[in-house]
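To: structure subgroup
Subject: Chain for Friday's discussion

All,

I'm putting the inputs and outputs inline so they're searchable in the archive.
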Amino acid sequence: MLTPPLSSPSRLLRDTSGVAMVEFALTLPVLLLLVLGGIEVTNLAVAHLKVNQVATTTADNAARVSSKMDETDLDEIFVGAKTAGEAIGLEDKGRVILSSVQDNGKSGTAKGQMINWQRCFGKATGKPPKYGREGKGRSDAALKDGVGKTRKIKAQPGTAVMLVEVAYTYDPMFFAAVTGGPIDINYETAFNVRERTELGITNTKGRPVKSC
């Protein structure tokens, strides 16, 4: 049955047949903003989680190598990092830096820490190591205060610390204008080596060196 036309202003004012549609149209932009914002926040949280996970597992795996570190060991360690960060495209948009921090064996004013060797993974080569490259502190006190955010990470003589820095660029899906563009995510973790007395690095099988 057809609805009779509204014949008076009073009936027009009492009619609510289109209220729901109007309310939905008004709230739709807000709902859409909330949904997209929720997706963005979730993706960013996952990126932080993955980057932190890569830093922790890479440092832990490197510290667990009980014999002298070899380039083949590093291949396996970085395969693990690649797998852990695959969901966020870490290899293409990030950089994993593994440094062996050790006492430089000097005395007096030259005593300090050194980066004995350093290897990197990831295509974001524009993200350099925070604390210097391989060889820094070897003959001077450039790292006398140690490494890490608080500069308190130091290796005791005869041992080493596996320091991992992970830098990653997160590209917002919906709110790049709000965030001002890509977001840099950085995590670092350090572990003491376990029962390793040979602190250098070898290349027994002639593997390509993942230098930084």
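Points worth raising on Friday:
The chain has a mean pLDDT of 89.
Residues 18 and 141 are 77 Å apart (CA to CA).

D.
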